[in-house]
Write a sequence for this structure.
């Protein structure tokens, strides 16, 4: 009976965003040849188990989804501030800016991916991980699929503006962006 139960589990994988899998764990999903090439691996090569593989550094395409064009000139500092407010609420359960977490670190994402790809990944993660080679490789690397937060396009563009501002070096440190700003105390006048 136990053998039948174990056989039914064979081939299944944990796609939960709360997965406890870590780099180097023995359970790593197999990659297709296209995914191996996208991840920079030779066909038939396994993902390295002892070190974290680097994310593909090539400019990805536009991805799969509703976004085929982004007017980056409309993404100003006001939009970036809104994105800085949305990021901790909608994204930080799985992503950190400077470090790998459940998902990849997001520093430099705007240099690795086209703006349309980023928006399609935010707005359409289910189709992206099924159809986009880069998203498939990221799923294989990080194991947990990206959750759909059901953001509006305007909210997703604000998060993109936040990423662009951060990657350009104009953003304040993440702690300063989420901490309330308190003015220094003024000395009482002595009149």
């Amino acid at each position: 009976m136990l053998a039948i139960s174990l056989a039914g589990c064979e081939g299944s994988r944990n796609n939960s965003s709360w997965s406890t899998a870590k780099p180097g764990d023995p359970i790593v999903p197999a990659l297709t040849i296209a995914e191996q090439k996208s991840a920079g691996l030779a066909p038939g090569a396994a993902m390295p188990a002892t070190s974290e593989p680097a994310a593909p550094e090539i400019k990805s395409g536009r991805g799969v989804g509703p976004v085929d064009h982004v007017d980056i000139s409309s993404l100003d500092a006001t939009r970036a501030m809104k994105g800085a407010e949305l990021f901790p609420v909608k994204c930080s359960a799985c992503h950190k800016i400077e470090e790998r977490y459940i998902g990849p670190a997001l520093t430099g994402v705007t240099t690795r991916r086209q703006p349309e790809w980023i928006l399609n990944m935010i707005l359409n993660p289910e189709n992206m991980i099924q159809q986009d080679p880069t998203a498939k490789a990221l799923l294989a690397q990080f194991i947990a699929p990206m959750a759909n937060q059901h953001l509006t396009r305007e909210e997703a563009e604000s998060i993109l503006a936040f990423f662009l501002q951060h990657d350009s070096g104009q953003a304040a440190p993440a702690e300063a962006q989420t901490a309330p700003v308190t003015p220094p105390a003024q000395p009482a006048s002595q009149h």
